[in-house]
Amino acid sequence: RREPLALVNLKKKNEETGEEELASRLGHCKAKATRHIFLIRHSQYNLDGRADKDRTLTPLGREQAELTGHRLASLGLKFDQIIHSSMTRATETTEIISKHLPGVKKISTDLLREGAPIEPDPPVSHWKPEAVQYYEDGARIEAAFRNFIHRADAKQEEDSYEIFVCHANVIRYIVCRALQFPPEGWLRMSLNNGSITHLVIRPNGRVALRTLGDTGFMPPDKITRT
């Protein structure tokens, strides 16, 4: 899903037709549509839960998810799918959001689960996971980026609008990678609960960040970052 030239086997180029055939084959590999990626951070959840199943949304978190769902619905876009982290807080956020987007299919994945993507630069004193966690989580979150953040398939004719409900660390890392910024800077960004981050991927592979962590649609007393 990179440059079309990288998807064509140049060794199989017909010697008789030469460049003309190559141009034709490249045309079949070029993206035509734009992908709109909406990255949603899960709503506020119970921090006292020891296991993932206990870390359910708080009453305020459920309100935040309702507000996010209403905001997404108000955009008037035809969303293609909602892909969400399999963790409880992301799944519950997705269920509430999806009520505002009837008919949009939901897909759960472990790739988008929260974790430590890469050692941040500069380091922070209040958050220091074990080094092994970066290797375990980092490979998975990088796999999520490569799997989900790419230009449209060449067969896609119309622009698409997709929602990803996951976690702050995952979203921040994806934004850095998508914009080709040093990924070690991911922790310099801060995202509110239920916030919307909008990435646009053009057919030529260029990426634009429309919004980062938007919660302007929430009343001030409903905004949290926990």
UniProtKB/TrEMBL annotation:
Does the keyword Membrane belong to this entry?
yes
Looking up InterPro entries in the UniProt record yields:
His_Pase_superF_clade-1, His_PPase_superfam, Mito_Ser/Thr_phosphatase
User: Keywords in UniProt for this one?
Assistant: Hydrolase, Membrane, Mitochondrion, Mitochondrion outer membrane, Necrosis
Report whether Membrane shows up as a keyword of the record: yes
Q: Which reaction does it catalyse?
A: O-phospho-L-seryl-[protein] + H2O = L-seryl-[protein] + phosphate; O-phospho-L-threonyl-[protein] + H2O = L-threonyl-[protein] + phosphate
One GO MF term attached to the UniProt entry: protein serine/threonine phosphatase activity
- Enzyme Commission code: 3.1.3.16
Cite a GO CC annotation: mitochondrial outer membrane
The protein in question is named Serine/threonine-protein phosphatase PGAM5, mitochondrial
Q: Which organism is it from?
A: Indicator maculatus
